[in-house]
Specification:
The protein is α+β, with helices and mostly antiparallel strands. It folds into two domains: about 45 residues; about 140 residues, OB fold (Dihydrolipoamide Acetyltransferase, E2P) (Beta Barrel). Helix content is about 35%, strand content about 30%. Strand 3 and strand 4 form a beta hairpin. The termini are far apart.
Length: about 200
């Protein structure tokens, strides 16, 4: 076999390899693998790791380990912002403190940037209020709790939304709804229904 024959054989092998790669990239298996990777990344965004949150009680410091899915809303009361939770949080360091409402002295924008940089959960609806998108729906000029019976805090319900924030709320709510629907598809022709808060989701 001369050099020309060797070159032809090498080219033929390369063509076959490229064809196999091209077939794979067009295959259902490849699409399935890509979708599984995306679902994994979405799962982390929807359920991020807990984060440390430090506040004070009686001018003494205490630290909590917070799950962002437990935050209902943050409401500003002058210099102090109150972070409301689904259920009481217990401190893990510092003074003993158990409460479903913890104080935060920074501004709302910094809170969202620090604890929800991907902008998945927290959404500002006015200069003084941030809500968790999972728990609210838009009703004209207000956002209301999807399940008002679940939370006893009246101050967390029927919150006014400023006109400047309506578009961001509706856009992000629609995006979140699409992500949750995507997560519930198993890519084998079935829709997975899970009885949890991700399915108790109104637009």
């Amino acid at each position: 076999m001369n050099s020309d024959d060797n070159t032809a054989v090498s080219l033929q092998r390369k063509i076959e390899e490229l064809q196999q790669e091209n077939d794979y990239l067009k295959s259902p298996l490849y699409m399935f693998e890509i979708c599984q990777i995306i679902k994994g990344e979405y799962a982390v965004l929807l359920n991020p790791p807990e984060f440390p949150f430090t506040t004070t009680k009686s001018q003494k410091s205490c630290t909590f380990s917070i799950n962002i899915n437990d935050i209902i809303c943050i409401i500003s009361d002058g210099k102090i912002k109150w972070v409301y939770f689904k259920e009481p949080q217990s401190s893990i360091e510092g003074i003993r403190h158990v409460s479903d409402r913890l104080s935060y002295t920074g501004n709302l924008e910094d809170f969202c940037l620090q604890y929800d940089r991907p902008k998945v959960h927290l959404c500002q609806i006015s200069r003084s209020v941030v809500i968790n998108l999972f728990y609210y729906y838009l009703d004209r000029s207000q956002v209301k709790l999807i399940d008002s019976k679940l939370f006893s805090k009246k101050e967390c319900d029927n919150l006014a939304i400023s006109k400047n924030y309506v578009k961001e709320f509706t856009t992000r709510k629609a995006t979140l709804k699409s992500i949750i629907s995507f997560q519930n598809i198993d890519f084998q022709g079935n829709y997975i229904y899970e009885s949890n808060k991700l399915n108790n989701f109104e637009y």
